Amino acid sequence: MDQAGNLRSLLDLHKKNSRPLPPAARVITVTSGKGGVGKTNFTVNLALYLHRKGVRVVVLDADLGLANIEILLGIAPKHSLLDVLAGKNTLEEIITHTHGGMGFISGGSGLVEMANISEEMLKITVQKLGALDEIADIILIDTGAGISNSVLKFVTAASECVVVCTPEPTSITDAYSLIKAVKDRGEKEPIPQLKIVINGAEDKDEGRNIFKNLQQVAQKFLSMELTHLGTLPHDANLRKAVRSQKPCVLSYPNTAFSREIENIGNKILDIQVEKPRGGMKGFMKRLTKIFGN
Ligand SMILES: Nc1ncnc2c1ncn2[C@@H]1O[C@H](COP(=O)(O)OP(=O)(O)OP(=O)(O)O)[C@@H](O)[C@H]1O
Ligand SMILES: [Mg+2]
Known about the structure:
Elements: H1 3-17, E1 26-32, H2 39-52, E2 57-61, H3 68-73, H4 81-85, H5 91-94, E3 96-98, E4 102-106, H6 110-113, H7 119-130, H8 132-135, E5 138-145, H9 149-157, E6 160-165, H10 169-185, E7 193-201, H11 204-222, E8 227-233, H12 236-243, H13 248-251, H14 256-270, H15 279-292
Parallel strand pairs: 1-5, 1-6, 2-4, 2-5, 6-7, 7-8
Antiparallel strand pairs: 3-4
């Protein structure tokens, strides 16, 4: 055998011996204690930035209220997750590819409906949605606000969670209540890594101080460690972007908000997640278990 042949058979042997891990996407929920703090804008702009960096992103709208992501992206998908649950459509059919290929799925009431379907259907659904592990590196889920049961279920089932909070005292106390509720729920199971984004701050110092306070209380009363992902400034261009239905990172790439989204996106990519709790399949299994209870 020639040298190249030797090398090839050596590589083949190596491939046979090392069992590759099944693909697993990072499932990241975006949530908040109080509503209207900038979750949807954060999710959409972060997703578009990561997509531009070559990361395979799928955004899942699990906010049962208004279809805000669709408005921000200027899209009107015909199908939602409910259609997959009803067996009407395949997963591929309900993914809208927008803005150069970024994936978007409208959750509808689909994720909550899972509580009412048969065991058999549930298995099929877990399998179907689990296929997202093959086509996405990161799945961002906008959960809507509040310490409602369903939001907490999504948050505890995910591998990572971003809590968005503004400098308003009520937003900070509500963020703390949410963190505490996650901790209380997670007594039996490991809880997701909690990451904090301060949105609408006057400057970085204000953001750092708010995070420091939140971190201190979380350490003292909950023995929890939080990560500060970044501080998004209050930015008039973001409002203009919302009005024109063209996301800020695209319409104002150099404005302060967009630049910080880039920093946060890079930070998320820098965080090494070896086994993101079994990816989308793990998330779905935990979610159905939690909804079953
Ligand atoms: N950094 C910012 N600078 C200026 N305006 C902002 C900023 N972040 C958010 N806003 C404004 O606040 C409004 C609410 O933002 P968004 O819809 O993203 O919040 P949300 O947390 O998703 O709300 P909900 O809880 O209702 O889902 C937006 O219309 C946007 O114009
Ligand atoms: Mg929203």
